[in-house]
């Protein structure tokens, strides 16, 4: 009996080690190359409203930190947004994102399952997180599924997922057809954080070529909730959102003739 228990313990340890070794690292998941293209859809739905965002991202440049633990990607981003009570809007801008701790396991190793989908993503290895707001990560294709927000009491859900990619000639999925004709590049580096936010929402601007005239907070269907005229623009703002109910919102910036929208979630 003792031998059986001992062998069972050894088997469990070996199984756990094999599973841990199979979990992808951040370096494996976020291994993109210049000219890689990714297409995403984001669906937000509730009983009274709906919202769809389509995004096309192309990798323009790539570089590493001096100690090689962080990778930076310069991207061109095109977005098309449409809501049930929201006009169709387009955005085209460039930004730089980074992924750090490249040798660490993705999502700190808190992974529920590691598997290969025989139908989707050309059988890239996938890691699904164990959290209730689960994510799915794919080797060299990034986060392919993200349950951003879910509230059973209001039947509200916000999901973002990969629908197409092209990496060095390897492609999968169905391309989005977002035209960037007549869309002028908007080179504004705007960060909105934390997401989700509790009582304070921070906004930082990397650069403002034109005067920031107004900041507005809108509901998920485009209803104006707060309006803040700006007299002296600066690079950092902190906004009190403690009066907002938990849910999905948009913050809108009027910079010269441009209207720039960013989404955020209130806890």
3D structure, described in words:
The chain has two domains: 24-173; 190-266, Immunoglobulin-like (Sandwich). The model is unreliable at 1-20 (pLDDT under 50). It is globular, with a radius of gyration of 21 Å. With 267 residues, it is mainly beta. It has helices spanning 2-22, 26-29, and strands spanning 37-46, 49-64, 70-83, 86-100, 111-116, 125-129, 135-138, 142-151, 156-167, 170-173, 190-193, 200-205, 212-219, 224-229, 236-240, 247-255, 258-266. The protein is built from two helices and 17 strands. Strands 1, 2, 3, 4, 5, 6, 7, 8, 9 and 10 form a ten-stranded antiparallel β-sheet that branches. It has a four-stranded antiparallel β-sheet with strand order 14-13-16-17, with no helix packed on it. Strand 1 (37-46) and strand 2 (49-64) form a beta hairpin.
């Amino acid at each position: 009996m003792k031998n059986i228990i001992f062998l069972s313990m050894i088997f469990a340890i070996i199984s756990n080690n094999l599973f841990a070794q199979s979990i992808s690292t951040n370096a494996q998941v976020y291994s993109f190359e210049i000219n890689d293209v990714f297409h995403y859809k984001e669906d937000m739905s509730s009983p009274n409203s709906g919202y769809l965002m389509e995004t096309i991202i192309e990798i323009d440049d790539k570089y590493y930190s001096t100690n090689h633990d962080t990778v930076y990607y310069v991207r061109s981003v095109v977005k098309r947004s449409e809501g049930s009570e929201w006009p169709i809007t387009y955005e085209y801008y460039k930004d730089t994102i980074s992924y750090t701790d490249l040798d660490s396991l993705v999502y700190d190793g808190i992974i529920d399952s590691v598997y290969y989908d025989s139908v989707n993503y050309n059988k890239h290895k996938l890691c699904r997180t164990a959290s209730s707001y689960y994510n799915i990560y794919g080797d060299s294709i990034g986060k392919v599924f993200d349950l951003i927000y879910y509230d059973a009491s209001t039947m509200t859900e916000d999901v973002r997922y990969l629908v197409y990619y092209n990496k060095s000639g390897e492609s999968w999925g169905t391309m989005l057809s977002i035209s960037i004709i007549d869309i002028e590049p908007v080179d504004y580096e705007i960060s909105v954080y934390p997401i989700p936010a509790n009582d304070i929402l921070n906004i930082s601007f990397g650069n403002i070529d034109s005067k920031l005239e107004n900041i507005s907070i809108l509901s998920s269907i485009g209803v104006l909730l707060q309006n803040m005229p700006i007299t002296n623009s600066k690079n950092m703002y902190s906004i009190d959102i403690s009066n907002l109910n938990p849910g999905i919102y948009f913050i809108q910036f009027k910079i010269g003739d441009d209207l720039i929208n960013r989404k955020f979630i209130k806890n």
